[in-house]
Every structure is written in C-alpha cells, then in structure tokens.
Design brief:
Number of helices: 8
Order of helices and strands: EHEHHEEHEHEEEEHHEHE
Number of domains: 1
CATH superfamily: Acetylglutamate kinase-like
Number of strands: 11
Largest sheet: 9 strands, mixed
CATH class: Alpha Beta
CATH topology: Carbamate kinase
Structural class: alpha/beta
Radius of gyration: 17 Å
Strand content: 15-25%
Shape: globular
Length: about 240
C-alpha cells in the first residue's frame, strides 16, 4: 500500500534526543531530513507533535494544579515544538504552514480544514499545533481527528521502537513484535497503541495506523513506499 496523503504523529519526548528535557537540535535536524525524503516525492504531509518534552497536563494535575489549566499549558508546549519543527523543515527548503487550534495569529493560522487541505494540495507541509484546542484530549486524539478531517490515507506514528510488541521491548527481552493487528485484536490484548479516544476514532473511521521506529534513517520513506516496516493496525487483516 502506497500513500498519497499522510498524517505523521510524533511524540514531544522524541525531540529530547539524549537530553532530559527540551529540544535536541540534532534530533530535530534528523527528523527534518527524514521528512524531506518523502516531501521530495510529493507526498502530502500533515504533522502533529506532542509537548511532553516541555510540559504535560497530567503532571500539572498530579502537582495539585487544575487539569484544564495544565492541559492548556501542554497545548502551548506543542506550539513550541511545532514552531521548532517548522523552522527545521524550512531551513531544508520545504514549504510549511502552521495551524493552531487556539488562536495565535502572530505565529500561526487558525485551523481551517479547507485551508489545510488546500495547502496540502499545493505541496506544503501542514503542522497542526495546540492539540484539539480542548482540555482532556491528548495529541494522539488531535492526530486522529485531524487525519480524519483532511482525509489522510493513514496515521504514521513515529516512535522509539519498531512497532507494537506483546510487552515493552525496552523492559522485557522476551517481547515479540506484531506485524499486523486489527483494532479489535489490539483492544482485546490491551496493547498501548494510542489512547482510547484516538484509537476509537481511527477504528470507526477506518483509518489505519502504522507504528514504526522514526529514529532509524530511511524508515519513514520505506513506510511511504509500502514496505512492511513496523506494525499496521487496521480494521481488517
């Protein structure tokens, strides 16, 4: 299966590289290089990136802060990452647009579905920041929602591991990898693919998810070309 339009979901933590927090410029440049490989093939690319390297709303709640306030702070963290990624992509000659679910007219367009699709059709990478604009929703949910709205062929979830395993492969050496799962199988096995809201959105809208190792050079390009990299989650086998 080859893809014409995709939504790439990246975690904020991935941008830390070997740091304890914040943004590793080398990792940012590496991701920009990987994205350029598929940009040059005229794949239409949308991106959602988390903010966990800077702030997480759940952390705020654990510290006694109001969850809603914490979630909005987390949305601002995603905007910092989105701007950093935008700068890295443009420094390598790619055209981008940043759209925010919260109005920030000095730095980003508001999210408008028709404008986002038009940008994609014109060959611009569209980065969606600030999650869904609502508290209690993760950036996984934002990624699923935006992918459905722009009618993406799939969500490509770039992680540190090369797919979905029976257990955490970083903790359990006996964990085995799945090449393909249905949504029902992933749910029954209680596998941590995405949060349940995002997972359900994908299942109900027949939107496949591919979980793969974004840190390995060339993997994103291989996924786009239809090679069996990572784990595919879809409604049918």
């Amino acid at each position: 299966m080859e893809f014409k339009r995709v939504l790439l979901k990246l975690s904020g933590e991935a941008l830390m590289g070997d740091k304890q927090f914040g943004i590793d410029n080398a990792r940012l440049a590496q991701y920009a290089e990987e994205i350029k490989k598929i940009y040059d093939k005229r794949v239409e690319i949308a991106i959602v990136i988390g903010g966990g390297n800077i702030f997480r709303g759940v952390q705020a709640e654990e510290g006694g802060m109001d969850r809603t306030q914490g979630d909005y702070m987390g949305m601002l963290a995603t905007m910092i990452n989105s701007m950093a990624l935008q700068g890295a992509l443009e420094s390598k000659g790619m055209q981008t647009r940043l759209q925010s679910a919260i109005e920030m007219k000095e730095i980003a367009e508001p999210f408008i579905k028709r404008k986002a699709v038009r940008h994609l059709e014109k060959g611009r990478i569209v980065i969606f920041g600030a999650g869904t604009g609502n508290p209690y929703f993760t950036t996984d949910s934002a990624g699923a929602l935006r992918a459905i709205e722009i009618e993406a062929d799939a969500i490509l979830k770039g992680t540190r591991v090369d797919g979905i395993y029976t257990a955490d492969p970083e903790k359990d050496p006996t964990a085995t990898k799945f090449d393909h799962l249905t949504f029902d199988e992933a749910y029954e096995k209680n596998l941590n693919v995405m949060d349940m809201t995002a997972f359900t959105l994908c299942k109900e809208n027949d939107l496949p998810i591919i979980v793969f190792d974004m840190n390995k050079s060339g993997n994103l390009d291989k996924v786009i070309q239809g090679e069996k990299i990572g784990t595919l989650v879809s409604n049918s086998k």
